[in-house]
Each structure stands twice: as C-alpha cells, then as structure tokens.
Amino acid sequence: MLAYVEKLTVNPSALTLGELNKLRTHFSEEEAYDVVLVACFFNFIDRVADAFGVELDGLIKTATSMTPEGEALKEFAAHHRAKS
C-alpha cells in the first residue's frame, strides 16, 4: 500500500493497472478505493497549502524537523494522545 501511495504521490502518471491490481490482492475493492481517495485528498490539500504558502504550526514544524521525513510525528502524536 505504501509503495502504491508513494508512487501515486510522486509519479502518478507512471502507475499501471498491474500495480492497482497488486493493491487489490491485499485489499477489497472498497478498501483500495479508500486508499486511493485518501492519498489523493491529502495530496490535494498539501498542494493547496503549498500554493498559498501555509506554514506549519511552530510545534509541528519543530517535531517534523527533528528527523528525516517527519519520523518524529509518530512520537509527537503518541505523546499528546497520552496526555488526553
């Protein structure tokens, strides 16, 4: 799923029917639809935010810059869930 979503994000025109069918071997048709839809939605929102120069909240920006590719978010989210 992650490989499919990454390719959908980075190089969508290179996706093949075979790759979609591979996704379908692991997920139902409805689940595969949801995977594609959620990835596309987040890509859309990210591009809108980039287009308007939306800045990340300072706390989130600090957390995402702590490690490559935002890996700190996992710990950040878990820490804040634990406080709730």
What proportion of the residues form beta strands (DSSP E)?
Answer: under 5%
Overall radius of gyration: 16 Å
Number of helices: 5
- Assign a percent range to the helix content: over 70%
Structural class: mainly alpha
Q: Terminal Cα separation, in Å?
A: 30 Å
Secondary-structure element series: HHHHH
**What's the count of strands?**
0
**Principal-axis shape:** elongated
Arithmetic mean pLDDT: 83
Report the sheet with the most strands, covering strand number, pairing sense and barrel closure: none
Describe this structure in words.
The chain is elongated and about 40 Å long. The two termini are 30 Å apart. It has 84 residues and is mostly helical. It has helices at 2-10, 17-26, 29-51, 58-65, 72-83. 2% of the residues are buried. The protein contains five helices and no strands. The chain has one domain (2-83).
List the helices and strands and how they pair.
Blueprint: H1 2-10, H2 17-26, H3 29-51, H4 58-65, H5 72-83
